[in-house]
Structure formats: structure tokens, C-alpha cells
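Work Package 4 report. The design task specified in the project plan requires that, given a folded chain encoded as C-alpha cells, an amino acid be chosen for each position. We show below one input record used in the internal validation round.
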């Protein structure tokens, strides 16, 4: 038996929900630890305990939506900057992709708590995930996230083999070493980046460090989810049978 840990923290670590959601479920009496209902916030438990969510909590989770958006240039991922709009304004009935195979109907209530799970800066385009589900947000942007993000990056400048090697492994931003990346030439003026982290304007800053200037950046994949044929400025629901 290890030292007792906060129940909400343990639920988050096990991927059951976010900490905030855990506290909500605990307050509602929807969490059972080793078969006993827990209702007190801040409860500490054995790290090896069995945790079960009530069927009502599972039903609430099933109602939460995750959408995949092909973000255009000029929209910010999260909080709007002066003169710009957040990408969430594009989630409307008239911008839903006509080829979306998810039978779920769009309702404006689905916009409540719908937040971006990862950055895509204002000058970039491509796949942006917005979700109401804390489990997905943690999977994509949690500190221990191991989900790949793939980008096509058009650049200007000269890059020798040593510079390419540095992009793959050996750069530091803000005094911290970057995790190893996979960077290869896609064609004469375009690089393919595969990263497992997402620091602010990371790819643009990485390129600057090796003498390149980014003139176009598009995210084409997050984990197993690809941008595919999703049209620019349109979105679709992530289906229940899909996983990152």
C-alpha cells in the first residue's frame, strides 16, 4: 500500500476524467472507491484502489462532444486577440462538413465548454481539435502526452545536413531542451515535422534557429486522426469509434 493520494488526481492520472470533472462527479456522489461511494472533495485514497464511475457519470461523458476543425489562417485557437476571432466561432450548423458520418445532431449547447486541445497559431492552418471531454484534452496536451502531431511546413532559406540533424534532435527553446522530433524534406521547399510536444510557435522558432523562415504551416494529423478531405473552415464530429 502506497501513501494516500488525492482521489481527483488519481482519477485524472488513470484517464477517467479531468481533475475538475472528478471533483464534479465526487460532489454528485457518482464515484465509488473499492465499492464505497465517495462524496467529500479532497478525499485521499490508496493509489492501488479500485475506482468506478456511476452509470450517470458515464452517460454524461458520452454526451460530451469532440470536433475536428480545418482552421483557416486568421483565427486564434483559444482566447481571442484584439481584432481576431477564436476558431470556435466556426462551429456552426452551416459550417458542418456535409460528409460527416456521425449521426449526432448539432446543438448550440455543445459549444458550452468546447475548448481547443492544443495550439495552432493565427498564421497556421490545418487540424484543430476542440473538445468538452477532459479525458481527450489530457491525452492531447497533458504533460505526459505522447500523441504525435504532424505538420507540413513551407520554408525559405538554406538548410544543410547539420541543420536538419539539429531540427531532429539538439535544439533548445526558453532554456529547455526540446523532445526529439522527426523532420524530413517533403519536397524542395517543404519540410514534414512530427512532434510530441507543442510549445508556443515551436516550429517557427525551431526553423529560425537553423536559418529558415516559415512561409506556410499546416497541421495534417494528430495521433490517428488525419485532416484528410475536411474542407477549409469546416468541421465534423469525432465519432465514438475513433481514437487518437
Amino acid at each position: 500500500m502506497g501513501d494516500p493520494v488525492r482521489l481527483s488526481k488519481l482519477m485524472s492520472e488513470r484517464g477517467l476524467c479531468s481533475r475538475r470533472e472528478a471533483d464534479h462527479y465526487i460532489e454528485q456522489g457518482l464515484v465509488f472507491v473499492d465499492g464505497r461511494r465517495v462524496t467529500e472533495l479532497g478525499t485521499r485514497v490508496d493509489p492501488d484502489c479500485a475506482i468506478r464511475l456511476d452509470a450517470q457519470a458515464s452517460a454524461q461523458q458520452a454526451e460530451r462532444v469532440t470536433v475536428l476543425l480545418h482552421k483557416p489562417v486568421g483565427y486564434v485557437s483559444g482566447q481571442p486577440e484584439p481584432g481576431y476571432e477564436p476558431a470556435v466561432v466556426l462551429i456552426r450548423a452551416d459550417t458542418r462538413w456535409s460528409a460527416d458520418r456521425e449521426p449526432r445532431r448539432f446543438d448550440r449547447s455543445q459549444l458550452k465548454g468546447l475548448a481547443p486541445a492544443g495550439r495552432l497559431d493565427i498564421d497556421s492552418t490545418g487540424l484543430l481539435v476542440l473538445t468538452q471531454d477532459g479525458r481527450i484534452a489530457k491525452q492531447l496536451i497533458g504533460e505526459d502526452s505522447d500523441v504525435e502531431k504532424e505538420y507540413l511546413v513551407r520554408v525559405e532559406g538554406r538548410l544543410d545536413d547539420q541543420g536538419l540533424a539539429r531540427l531532429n534532435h539538439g535544439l533548445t527553446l526558453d532554456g529547455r531542451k526540446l523532445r526529439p522530433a522527426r523532420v524530413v524534406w517533403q519536397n524542395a521547399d517543404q519540410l514534414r515535422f512530427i512532434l510530441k510536444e507543442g510549445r508556443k510557435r515551436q516550429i517557427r522558432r525551431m526553423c529560425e534557429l537553423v536559418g529558415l523562415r516559415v512561409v506556410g504551416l499546416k497541421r495534417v494529423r494528430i495521433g490517428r486522426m488525419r485532416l484528410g478531405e475536411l474542407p477549409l473552415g469546416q468541421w465534423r464530429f469525432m465519432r465514438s469509434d475513433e481514437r487518437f
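The longest helix spans residues 19-28. Validation will be extended to a larger panel in the next phase.
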